[in-house]
Amino acid sequence: MINAAVIGTGYIGPLTIEALRRLGNVRTAGVCDANLSLAKQIAAKYDIKKVYANWQEVIEDRSIDVVHICSPNRLHYVMNKAAIQAGKHVLSEKPLAMTLAEAAELAVLAGKTGIVSGVNFCYRYYPLVLEMASRVLRGRAGQVRMVTGTWFQDWLSHPDDWSWRLERKESGPSNTAADLGSHWFDMVQFITGMKITEVMADFSTLIPVRNKPQQQVIAFEKAGNIKSREVKVALEDYAAIIFRLSSGAPGSFTTCQVATGRKSDTEIQVYGSDYSLAWDHRRSDRLWIGYRDKPNEVLIEGPALQNAESGFYASLPAGHPLGYHDALLNLFKDFYEDVKKAGGRDRKRTLPRPTFSDGVDEMRILEAIVSSVKKRAWVKV
Known about the structure:
The structure is a single chain. This protein is an alpha/beta fold and 381 residues long. Helices cover 33% and strands 25% of the residues. The protein has helices at residues 12-23, 36-45, 55-60, 76-85, 100-113, 127-137, 168-171, 176-192, 308-311, 324-340, 356-375, and strands spanning 2-7, 26-32, 50-52, 66-69, 89-92, 117-119, 144-152, 196-204, 209-213, 228-232, 238-245, 250-256, 265-272, 276-280, 286-290, 297-300, 379-380. The strands form three sheets. It has a nine-stranded mixed sheet with strand order 16-15-14-13-7-12-11-8-17. The chain has a six-stranded parallel sheet with strand order 3-2-1-4-5-6, with helices on both faces. Strands 9-10 form a two-stranded antiparallel sheet. Helix 4 (76-85) links the parallel strand 4 (66-69) and strand 5. Helix 1 (12-23) crosses helix 10 (324-340), helix 4 (76-85) runs parallel beside helix 5 (100-113) and helix 5 (100-113) runs antiparallel to helix 11.
């Protein structure tokens, strides 16, 4: 058994624990949270034996092989660095750090020590997102001409809605571009096999004044009537970005967390010279394939219908759709396969697993986006 510990028991922490339980060869040996009461609740729910008083105790525990960093952004760098230096394999939430320099340092350090690193870009692990990447890699869609997409949510659409992601000291220089944008741009680079080389971005704070609760509120939680105080919000809840890929192909992305009625509407479209591909998170088991000279198609998720490298991750027969929990599990399967290998070397995959190098890529993009907003100009990545 591989012993893992989870630091952070808010929204993503319990989802991480549930995915780990499904692996079979991984034991969640302990949990940690700044909110000790919450950590104890999660430990009791999942029958986890150990609750650490602070995250440093996790790092110092020699029985722990892998650390999952599920904390707010400002803690990612220091926790990741400490875990690597202690010789532990690490799977971090995104973004990897608060700055590009911090992320780059972590990637270099992970490479030198030989630990297995991972970043939770789980959306690339939906079977039909993998299928998109497989088809583009094989050249079946032809030359990629254009990429576009959106990501709309409404969980911050009321002035009483709150998240630590709205605070610069916790989140860094961006809210929604760092949160949702990091996932979406990772999908773009993964599917196309190309890098984003230039961006032009616009941010807006559509709710500039909010009521901040005086107690912890978990992401997506309906907090109810609790004591709060009025605060000005510095970070964006809307972002629009146009960009160029390394081939010169253009793209665009719009995201917003105050889009009333949209719960988590994610779409990515890739337009090729031979055919086009479109995936919608709300119908994640359907892949739209568009043609010029014949009827369009809809591919249903299923191992017998997909390419071998993507069908491997579609674990149920067609008509039995997988979801977010399964995408998380697929990522963890690949990560822990590499942990089990001698020397911690990554298995060479046709469809690669996200490592700290991918985390650095996303920080490069985010840094360019933030710079573009300030300059109101195109910025190279």
